[in-house]
């Protein structure tokens, strides 16, 4: 199924902005947002999109007519910079700037100006549920009301660009959007249970492409693992996914420039499969002509995969037309903690992987490796102490690459104590350190 018009939307002149007023609705199609992913403390929209404004709300739609963002406009809305965002996996999240939860300086926590509050269980640090706020939860009925209004609207005399846009939107009711997300998951062989933390740099707007299933370790603490043993996908399977994804994203493909090679350990799939998948996706998705600049490639890697990867792989990755970000799950540099979470690795391997991460960041301009460690009040004190020691002793480097992500365990009983622990580590770390929240797609 193609979810938009079959024509190619890339580049002007096809992006012709048209505006009109229809009853009490102000409609603008093909608005240009920022064509670079940038971080800002005010609401940013990226790529090309369309907008419908009422006196109370602003609704944004992608190039296929799918609802994407909703923001309140009246004085009851919690904050003018906050909005709701819908993902291609059909999840809604509320982007807060932290005012309500009294957490100023969210950028220190996450490296972003907002905190996504999700509608599904995650490893959040705070018990903040924005959906209990009547003004926020009312958004969903406002969207239903708008949809009903659009369904019945008379379009006589309206410019054809607006008519085409409205006809796309009315074909995207709740059931259709849900079916779309099911189709996305069917193409890649299941939902993406967790995205790499680095995908925050593209506001989590990635095209998922699975090149391997399962993972090597099946750690006890992990809430996103699959039961499968590690198995790379075949070349044919990957090529078929790419073709089907191209059709799936339809016209809105032009707003993407980022690829996530899944699943939990794509790095282990080896240079041939990784580079073939990335190059083919780049070609078929026409990332070179994307509305968004600077193509990005994201993948996870395990300690074992990183250690066994030779320079040949990194040289090939470095020459791809992407800036590649590889996120490695290191978890802890404390022997007892590793044993308690059933991670079957020795401290020496974690230290070696950490050292390799720093070397890759120094040696390859187009590759950046980041690492995850655990954060949890139930972890042994030696976990925090050994981690501080590791991060404090990172040699000076001028390349400004690499970051550390601290991932709160899901079953923390005393979440209130975690911020203190996080800042203790962050303060001592010579690499930037942020919290990692589990987000799915
Ligand atoms: S932490 Fe990584 S390696 Fe361990 S079970 Fe989860 S996905 Fe697998």
Please tell me the overall pLDDT: 91
Bound compounds, each kind once, are: iron/sulfur cluster
Distance between the termini: 19 Å
The CATH topology of the largest domain is TIM Barrel
- By CATH reckoning, the class of the largest domain would read Alpha Beta
Q: Count the strands?
A: 17
CATH-wise, what's the superfamily of the largest domain? Answer: Aldolase class I
Number of domains: 2
Helix fraction, binned, reads 25-40%
The helix/strand series, from N terminus to C terminus, equals EEEEEEEHEHHHEEEHEHEHHEHHEHEHE
Strand order of the largest sheet: 1-2-3-4-5-6-7-8
Described by strand count, sense and barrel closure, the largest sheet is: 8 strands, antiparallel
Overall shape: it is globular
Give the CATH architecture of the largest domain.
Answer: Alpha-Beta Barrel
Percentage beta strand: 15-25%
SS-based class: alpha/beta
Low-confidence stretches: 1-11
């Amino acid at each position: 199924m193609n979810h938009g018009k079959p024509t190619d939307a890339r580049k002007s002149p096809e992006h012709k902005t048209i505006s009109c007023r229809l009853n009490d609705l102000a409609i603008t199609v093909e608005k240009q947002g920022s064509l670079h992913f940038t971080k800002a403390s005010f609401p940013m929209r990226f790529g090309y999109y369309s907008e419908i404004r009422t006196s109370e709300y602003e609704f944004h739609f992608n190039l296929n007519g799918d609802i994407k963002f909703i923001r309140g406009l009246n004085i009851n809305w919690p904050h003018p910079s906050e909005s709701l965002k819908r993902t291609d996996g059909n999840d809604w999240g509320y982007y807060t700037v932290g005012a309500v939860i009294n957490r100023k300086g969210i950028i220190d926590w996450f490296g972003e100006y907002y905190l996504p509050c999700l509608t599904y269980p995650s490893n959040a640090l705070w018990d903040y549920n924005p959906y209990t706020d009547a003004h926020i939860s009312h958004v969903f009925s406002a969207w239903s009301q708008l949809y009903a209004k659009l369904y019945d609207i008379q379009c006589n005399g309206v410019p054809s660009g607006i008519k085409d846009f409205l006809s796309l939107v009315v074909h995207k009711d709740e059931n259709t959007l849900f079916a779309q997300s099911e189709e996305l998951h069917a193409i890649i062989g299941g939902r993406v249970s967790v995205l790499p933390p680095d995908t925050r740099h593209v506001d989590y707007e990635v095209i998922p492409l699975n090149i391997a299933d399962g993972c090597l370790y099946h750690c006890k603490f992990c809430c996103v693992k699959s039961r499968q043993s590690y198995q790379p996908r075949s070349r044919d399977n990957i090529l078929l996914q790419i073709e089907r994804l191209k059709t799936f994203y339809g016209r809105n493909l032009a707003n993407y420039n980022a690829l996530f090679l899944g699943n939990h350990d794509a790095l282990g799939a080896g240079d041939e499969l990784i580079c073939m998948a990335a190059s083919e996706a780049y070609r078929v998705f026409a990332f070179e002509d994307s509305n968004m600049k600077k193509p990005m490639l994201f993948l996870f890697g395990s300690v074992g995969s990183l250690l066994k990867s030779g320079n040949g792989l990194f040289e090939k990755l470095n020459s791809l037309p992407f800036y590649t970000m590889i996120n490695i799950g290191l978890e802890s540099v404390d022997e007892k903690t590793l044993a308690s979470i059933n991670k079957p690795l020795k401290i020496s391997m974690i230290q070696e992987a950490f050292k390799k991460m720093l070397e890759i960041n120094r040696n390859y301009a187009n590759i950046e490796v980041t690492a995850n460690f655990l954060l949890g009040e139930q972890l042994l004190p030696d976990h925090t102490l050994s981690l501080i020691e590791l991060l404090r002793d990172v040699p000076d480097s001028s390349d400004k690459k690499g970051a550390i992500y601290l991932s709160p365990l899901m079953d923390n009983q005393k979440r209130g104590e975690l911020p203190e622990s996080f800042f203790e580590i962050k303060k001592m770390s010579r690499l930037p350190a942020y919290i990692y929240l589990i987000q799915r797609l």
